[in-house]
Amino acid sequence: MPDSIFNVLQDAIREGNPIALATIIEGDGVGRKMVLDPTGEVHGTLGNTSLDRVVLRDMSGELEAGRTGTRHYGRNGEAREEELTIFIESFAPPPQMLIFGAVDFTAALVRVAKVLGYHVTVCDARAVFATTKRFPLADAVEAQWPDKLLETVGSSLGVRDAVCVLTHDNKFDVPAITAALDTNVGYIGVMGSRKTHDNRSNRLREAGVSEEDFKRIMSPIGSDIGARTPEETAISICAEIIALRTGREANSLKQGSGPIHKPND
Amino acid sequence: MPDSIFNVLQDAIREGNPIALATIIEGDGVGRKMVLDPTGEVHGTLGNTSLDRVVLRDMSGELEAGRTGTRHYGRNGEAREEELTIFIESFAPPPQMLIFGAVDFTAALVRVAKVLGYHVTVCDARAVFATTKRFPLADAVEAQWPDKLLETVGSSLGVRDAVCVLTHDNKFDVPAITAALDTNVGYIGVMGSRKTHDNRSNRLREAGVSEEDFKRIMSPIGSDIGARTPEETAISICAEIIALRTGREANSLKQGSGPIHKPND
């Protein structure tokens, strides 16, 4: 490993900063390495700029997911070719998703979030619903009030993380949202019909949530893909999270004004 | 079970037509039933029109996924309330997804498709890649040419089903796409950069694909959410499939003209 790359890697790991390392393990240039940190700083090269560009894009995705794995490319980064095998290692914890509300939609969201590499916590104040038996794939299930949980874990949340509020009850939603706004979490999505949303917005204003804060709240949660089942809704939420992180137009329900479901659905 | 509902159900099952049945199993009106067929025809009621409307929407989603399960509602269909427990049964096979190409993206798409309830077949002519070891969650893995597989299963494909072509090689893509166009499959998505797409479009025209047929081909595949990793790409593909089925704006890459990834990605 070249000194410069080793030093960058060592410093990042020592300080607990996320960093990704790519190494060619099969094909031309075996052993070439490149590192990427979340600010976009790059050290090293895999051999040519078009290969670097493609692999850096994939590294940023893998780093975001805290994921390590093997990918295949053509010599100049062509997708779906097999000339080069590259090992991408993320030195980073997985991103976190906190789901408030142990409801019908929660189990499906846990399953899709796990595919995306999240460490998933399900939290509901109602102990009878917040059980590992109902959410076997969740990494943690907490029978607690949302604001209590966020007191404990809130400071660890950052731009890669997500809070999804599915409780649909002002008693739980309002403390969950206000506590989430006090963190640096990258995504806050809140479920509910437009009517519920308006009612909740009034409660949130009463609780001191500013107009600036409201911009951070994705409500109604999800992309406007006409999701019907819990599984489809989980896809719509994750699509919105990805689009926000990559700066794309998420076609969010938040931006629309019509009903979430078409009248004749 | 009222006679009329029993008869409708019996006829549908006897003829092998998909049909969904909802029954209140806890709360007010236990035992009330309603059936829905894929043409939208409804028999019976669960007690009031707003409850029926919400449950019918969920039934159509479950029926599409060939899925059976329990959902909770308020008395008037309020989501995320627990007054009523309703059992929704789909008398229908699961929808099918055929994925052509055993590439890096395939395993992630299999995982997300399984959450959505698809019966998933992975097909690649290269026997060394088309193995159950690489795709443990797939329902079937076929080492076969795409057009050969479609000769066998093509007639069973309908509007709920999907064909995803991830091979990115004209040798495989062109026969997969032309054979898929000969079926009634509801979704045909094809992976590739815009450059590959243009090149492939010429080959498809040479192979006799009409302008009308081109409208059915979603290429480049997926919603424009800036997906980077295979897992994010899987979400983008499934979001596009759902949006097309429900008549929403999928924000498809097909409709755009810019690069699939931002230059600075």
Overview features:
homodimer; 265 residues; alpha/beta; Rossmann fold; 2 domains; six-stranded parallel beta sheet; five-stranded antiparallel beta sheet; 8 helices; 11 strands; elongated
User: Which superfamily, in CATH terms, is the homologous superfamily of the largest domain in chain A?
Assistant: NAD(P)-binding Rossmann-like Domain
Q: Which structural class do you get from the secondary structure elements of chain A?
A: alpha/beta
Biggest interface, CB < 8 A: A-B, 56 and 56 residues
What is the terminal-to-terminal distance of chain A?
Answer: 58 Å
Level-2 CATH architecture of the largest domain in chain A: 3-Layer(aba) Sandwich
Instruction: Characterize the largest beta sheet of chain A: strand count, sense, and whether it forms a barrel.
Output: 6 strands, parallel
Q: What is the helix/strand order of chain A?
A: HEEEHEEEHEEHEHEHHEH
Quaternary structure type: homodimer
Mean pLDDT of chain A equals: 90
CATH class of the largest domain in chain A: Alpha Beta
Sequence stretches where pLDDT stays below 50 over 5 or more residues of chain A = none
User: What count of domains describes the coordinates of chain A?
Assistant: 2
The value of Rg of chain A in angstroms is 21 Å
Strand order of the largest sheet of chain A: 8-7-6-9-10-11
Q: Approximately how much helix is present in the residues of chain A?
A: 25-40%
What is the approximate shape of chain A? elongated
CATH topology of the largest domain in chain A: Rossmann fold
What's the total number of strands of chain A? 11
